[in-house]
Write a structure and sequence with these properties.
Chain A: Pfam families: Fer2, Fer2_2. The complex is a heterodimer. By secondary structure, chain A is an alpha+beta fold. Chain A contains six helices and five strands, in the order ββαβββααααα. Chain B has three domains: 198 residues, Aldehyde oxidase/xanthine dehydrogenase, a/b hammerhead (Aldehyde Oxidoreductase, domain 3), CATH 3.90.1170; 394 residues, Aldehyde oxidase/xanthine dehydrogenase, molybdopterin binding domain (Aldehyde Oxidoreductase, domain 4, 2-Layer Sandwich); 227 residues, Aldehyde oxidase/xanthine dehydrogenase, molybdopterin binding domain (Aldehyde Oxidoreductase, domain 4, 2-Layer Sandwich). Chain B starts with 11 loop residues before the first strand and ends with a helix.
Chain lengths: 174, 923
Amino acid sequence: MTTLSLTINGQKHGPMDVRDDLSMNDFLREILGMTGTKFGCGAAQCLSCAIIVDEPDGTSYTSPTCIAPAVNFDGKSIRTVEGHAKDGQLSALQKAFIDHFAFQCGYCTAGFLNEGQVLLERLARAPVPREALEQTIADALDGHLCRCTGYIKYHEAVRDVILADSKRYLMATK
Amino acid sequence: MRPSRREFVKWFSAGGISVSLSHLGLAKEARFASHETLPGRGNFNPAAKGTGRVDGVAKVTGAKLYASDFRANDLPGWPQATSHAILVRANDATHVYTGVDLARLSGALKPSVVVTAADLERIGTQVPHFYAGDLFCPLGKTPLYLGQPVALLIFERFDVFDQARLVLRDGTFVKFGEETGPVIAPDYGSYRFTRVAGALPEKPDIYSPILAGWVSPKKVQNAALPVWSPLAKEMPADYTKAAKHGEQIRAELAAEDASLLVLDREFETQSVDPMFLEPECGLAWYNGKGGNLELVLGVQSPYEAAESIAHLLAKARAPYKPAHINAQFAHVGGGFGGRDHTPFILYVALAAICFPGKPVRLAHDRYQQFQGGIKRHPIKMRSRIGIDRSTGKIKAFAADHVLDGGGLVNFSANVAVVAATGAIGIYDIPKVDVTTVAMHSRGVTAGSMRGYGTLQTMTALEVLIDEAAGELKLDPIEFRRRNALKQNGRTMTGNPYIVSVRTPEILDKLEKHPIWQQRAQFKQASSDRLVGTGVACVTKDYGSGADCSLGRVELGADGKIAIFCDHVEMGNGIGTALANRVAGHLGTIADEVSVARVDSYDVLGLVTSGDPYTMDQKTQDAASRNPRWVPSISSATSASIGAHVGTHSSAEAARVIFRFGLWPAALELWRIPKTDPRARQWPTARWENGQLMMNGLEPLALPALAATAHARGFVTGAVAHSFSRWAWSRARFPLFGEQWRAEIDALAIRRGNGKFERINRSSVKFPPTDNNRIGTAYTSMCGTVVRVEIERATGALRIAKAYSVFECGTALVPEVVMGQSHGGFAMGVGYALLETLPPFEGGPGNGEWNLGRYLIARGSDLPLRDLEIEMLKPLTPDEEPKGMAEVVMIPIVPALINAIHDATGHRFRALPVTASLLKGVLA
């Protein structure tokens, strides 16, 4: 057993004792009841289980939770799909997903939302040229599997959020 | 009427068990309702603003929607703790099963309960006919198929379950003894579809399934395949007649005839997994001692699931027999057919029955989903086609199909039939003879999956057509145009389609598209890559021949609309489609849409009997005299019927509310007396921006109309049931002094705030039982052109550009329709190029398959910026919606194979065409 403390969507959890081999996915879903993070394959292939890990330096990355032990997240700050809306207001990306009909069954949506949000925040720190945008989005989202949509509307939603605030996310054109 | 979660409706009784079905979103408890239900009840519904889906907010905020999201402590009234079960399956089907060795689960890791075949014997369960076969392989028998369950292990605490499943991961604890070889079982069904047209198109057919019925050969010997010869001993007379015509067609194709181009080709398709992203899951709680069995399930066929569980336990001994079963249904995380009639739900129920007092969760992981989930049928096909060289017209077609149905019968016979009757695709062929047989094998069970057999047979056909066009030196699109079935032409079973046939328009679009126009220009090969262009055009039926729709619409005094529907949301946007279709009658998007609701229509008091597919006319006529009788009550959400069927009853209910609620309210507000001729002009009224418009009259807002309707006791709610057997049932209902005619067979109405009351139909006309001879009458079309680039060195294929064009009548939610067409394209690409499951020992039944090994299309496999999809506008503003979710995945498959041939000169006759296979032919 290991004592685990972490911050989820700004709220502190722990310290609590967890088994060393308990997956982060089961910690969220079975221990905390936070089932917005999904279980798809248990092999880090579909990334429907991906969450956001926030680093102390202000950067973030996504991590699968199905193969990662919960204890690996000790001391970390993470975000899940349940934490994107603030004060009842949906994030720009959540709204874009809805406006674009980006998802169908919605089981992969949490993973795409987290990945897209990390991309937005990365571009806000390090904008890319407009001509690199399509490939940047494609590279960012390619690890995520969706069986319903064909991905196009997810890509369009992310692109539209970026283009709607291009000064923030894209390099200035000369 | 808005029943609480505790006011369950008793729908049917099986073996003394009362059964009810309800919906997760009905809980009154605030915490549950605010976080875990769909929009409505005051929650933000983006669709009401004209954008997004009704389930949009729930899905982007991680609300509990799916069966896999729920634990016991989420459910009001349940115990707090959840126990967990593991379904152990056989990974060998050629040796005698000798038991599970659980020695490695020592001490605290021991399961609380182990359920085996012997326990079922003791309990007295009975297997529903549809799932015939041992639910658990008994000791001493060879498993019927790879992946057949052998035991259910139940663990009271999650931690124990979690550690135990890791310990058991390798599957070596399932023990086998003597080698027996696989179990040999009879085939699941064999049919022959033969049609001989008259001498001229306008002449009646000489022979067809419509004229003579469907035929099947008698089993005359223990051969692996049926004996198709009409001369075989003791064949049924109807079969012999069909077979004589069929053999004549085959003889003509085999004859030396220089005027006829005859191609005789084989094609083989693979087994694939639906790979819906949410593995199957369920939660159940049996309070023991003959009390209630509560279930939370996620399936495409809720009514069937509850019925099957009731059958399973109907003869169980005390204390295993519940008095009451209540099944609640959640959204599903993808279905694609694989959750339609799944045996998984039986094991969820058994887990609870065998651990009374404790809620038990049974959830597949992905390995288990591959090992036990329903698969697509692999089909071996041999096709012969004869074409008049001078006219380029197809004269005859003969084919033989062999489907591998895997271990349980499931829908194998049905898939075989749909595959066979789809085998001539978009074409008008005067002489057709197709035999089909679905075989048992030791493979994982195959069943319903998007395309339902036609994906396989139409791929084989469109590749054959492409080859024939090449042989005849005809343009592939012109060849298709020359042979395309026209609006009133007859299908393989001898009936015409009863919906629009827009193949010519689609072929024209394909021909004019730049991808096709520029194919020669792009074919210029470079040193490092080959370029090719391919085309295909298909048609796919929607509907199953016995489809039901239940709908309830309520209009509040404030003008807010609530809709309840029995069809399931599996990503297909049924909730949003319902909202939009009802808005056409009531002027605005519903505030609340509740799907998978099979509990809201008790006022209709429906009863049913017999089998709608096999019933004779006399029986149907006699049963119809009971005004509450219908051929079937509820059907699965499948067969692309979401738009056409799923929304139908709600739309009809809304029409009743308009005619007998809002329209009389409008007349009052306009002060138009009933004697005024304008009082009969309700069909000319129209809605604009939530206001009812009539020329020369003041626009009326829906809330004002609703308030008046409530105040005056006009109709403010309606419940309807409808049934389609390639045509809707029609009935008359006495309403307010007139006979209301509608394409429904049961109706209830509410006046003002009163209770719903059933209106007994005064007459009904159910579609004739002879319609069961129809292969399909509803169909939609789709065509695709695609350009591929193939690296010579590696065989890596890139889809450079693609264009698909399809028609679907009136699109209820165009954005969802486009999304489904994107998804269909992606699934088609995976099927053509990536996905495959080996049969038998190396396949998914061994429990070792997962994503990574099994490849589905990623974004980088698709032309995300170079895929153009065109949805044709409806032919008329009021054209009915048509099912489209299956047809859109089909043509990309043969179009890719044809493009690969164009690029490489090699025609592949088996799927998938992987990069390594391509590299092989380029070497």
